[in-house]
Amino acid sequence: IVYAFDVRPEVAEQIESMGAEFVFLDFEDEVQDGAATGGYAAPSSPEFREKQLEKFRELAPDMDIVITTALIPGRDAPKLWTKDMVQMMKPGSVIVDLAAERGGNCDLTVPDEKVVTKNGVTIIGYTDFPSRMATQSSTLYANNIRHMMDDLTPEKDGKIVHNMEDDVIRSATVVYEGKITFPPPPLKVQAIAAQPKKEAPKELTAEEKRAQELAEFKAATKQQVGMLAAGGLLMLLIGAYAPASFMAHFIVFALSCFIGFQVIWNVSHALHTPLMAVTNAISGIVILGALLQVGSSNWLVVILATVSILIATINIVGGFLVTRRMLAMFQKS
């Protein structure tokens, strides 16, 4: 699970859109937006800071990697990851302090150095990441420039449309139509919404629980009886016209489908990967049977055998690839 926090309210939606969880602070009312000019943070109130530290302390024992980026223009970086939080973290955890140039967001950050604490937590305080990661830096910068050009040429015809109502274009403009437009006006101030309160599930009484269990049992029983009845009628219908030798094979096939369904769906998802080894063996049996039928004089049998070989081969190849990845997880790189 990836958690992220930011004082700017619009970031919450962006974080959740990428599959991460936004860390809400436990405030009863709305809190003033912490964003300042240029997208950097503004100094927060003592109450806000206490809530921040309280929440981070709660999360610290579960964090394997912590990346901090908080900066305030003209001031030292705020201390958001304290010494006691570092001590709560598991051995082998890593803190990447991207604010190390201004003192760092972690109490134990040493600028331009990588240190390892007594409890085995690595704190990276390098200040030259743009040069250490030149390719990534260039890619990110080029991506920003590309989006900037998209904003300037909305019709994609190469003609620049200088829209001063666009916050990005307005903030990047210094001179427009012979007039100095810098610094830009501050962006609209929003508010951080209080964390939505989750309604506690209603506690059921003993009678309500018994009634709910009885209703679920009746529904499951009705479904199973219906399926058994439908299956029985189908067997009778087929048995009325099919030869006895076919019925013996058909019953084995039906039982194998039922047992296979129960085995797969009643096994924990964590154990599905080891099951690949079993399905590989079954698929091998399917291929052997299909190969024996490929030489049949019946064209329908040949087509079905060919399709069986194709599907079983896909299953075998995929099974071996997944098994290889599973085994690689237990090898030292």
Structure keywords:
Rossmann fold, two-stranded parallel ribbon, 4-stranded mixed β-sheet, 50% helix, elongated, 333 residues, 3 domains, alpha/beta, 8% strand, single chain
Provide an overview of this structure:
The structure is a single chain. The protein is elongated and about 90 Å long. It has helices at about 10-15, 45-60, 85-90, 130, 135-150, 165-170, 205-240, 245-265, 270-295, 300-330, and strands at about 5, 20, 30, 65-70, 95, 115, 120-125, 175, 180, 190. It has 3 domains: about 5-125, NAD(P)-binding Rossmann-like Domain (Rossmann fold); about 210-265; about 270-333. By secondary structure, the chain is an alpha/beta fold. The protein starts with a strand and ends in a 5-residue tail after the last helix. The strands form 4 sheets. A 4-stranded mixed β-sheet has the order 4-5-7-6, with no helix packed on it. Strands 1-2 form a two-stranded parallel sheet. It contains 10 helices and 10 strands.
